[in-house]
Automatic annotation (TrEMBL):
Domain DUF5703 stretches: 35-242
Protein name in the entry: DUF5703 domain-containing protein
InterPro entries found in the cross-reference section: DUF5703_N
Species of the source: marine sediment metagenome
């Protein structure tokens, strides 16, 4: 049996406290959510949480994908951002064969299990995704009946600065305090690099920004500015993908 563990450690330099919660009552297996077909896209994803980390997990065209998010991941305009997306590729691929497929949310133990059986190549693979409660770490455990190649790919759409188009309920909707701002609204890009340990990715808010400075001026609170906490300045959040 082959086994590989991939971990994604989320980081945040501000508001990094994690909370532990214990279920008041056990869940029976009949409450589990189970699928026997792959998803069309992320709209058919399965939720996975632990502490202040949340993921959207799904299998699309034979590849396992999940979005990452963490509480407190606010950009320079106050928008709540995803940390990125991770794609898992297996070779040979047990999800390409016309065998069996199962994706199940195990509620009692709080993990997602994905199983693929490829009868033509006699390959059985189980993938377990789970999130630590006391530490901001997402685990992807891959168990296979025979050796296989596993690729873990980090994907980001914030690779360059982007001007958010004006207008209500459009690209600026997540930054609702600045949704009607008449000037330019630019979101800074993420920093992504390869290190000895893995792929490091993070978003760091700039020192010069509109929030809360613009809001302070609009409300005539300049005299009270020194007493207003700016929790967006230099706020940094991201993670490290390694395995």
């Amino acid at each position: 049996m082959s086994k590989l563990i991939i971990a994604i450690a989320a980081l945040a330099l501000i508001n990094t406290a994690c909370k532990t919660r214990t279920a008041d009552a056990p869940f029976g297996d009949h409450y589990n959510v189970s699928w026997n077909t792959q998803s069309e896209n992320s709209s058919e994803s399965m939720p996975l949480v632990g502490g202040d980390i949340a993921c959207n997990v799904w299998v699309e065209e034979g590849e396992v994908l999940f979005y990452l998010s963490r509480s407190g991941s606010f950009d320079e305009h106050g928008a709540y951002l995803k940390l990125g997306r991770v794609r898992i590729k297996l070779t040979p691929n047990p999800f390409d064969d016309a065998g069996s497929f199962r994706q199940e949310l195990i509620l009692q133990d709080g993990f997602v299990e994905i199983e693929g059986k490829a009868d033509k190549i006699a390959l059985n693979v189980k993938i377990k995704l789970w999130v630590e409660v006391k530490n901001p770490v997402v685990h992807v455990d891959v168990n296979a009946s025979s050796p296989l190649k596993v690729e873990a790919i980090y994907e980001s759409w914030r690779t360059e600065e982007r001007e958010l188009a004006p207008g209500n309920y459009g690209e600026r909707f997540a930054s609702f305090n600045l949704m009607a701002y008449p000037g330019k609204l630019v979101r800074s890009k993420d920093d992504i690099s390869f290190t000895d340990r893995g792929i490091l990715f993070y978003h760091r808010n700039p020192e010069e920004k509109l929030s809360p400075e613009l809001l302070i001026r609009m409300q005539g609170l300049e005299e009270e500015a020194d007493g207003i906490t700016d929790d967006l300045k230099n706020r940094t959040f991201g993670g490290l993908l390694f395995g």
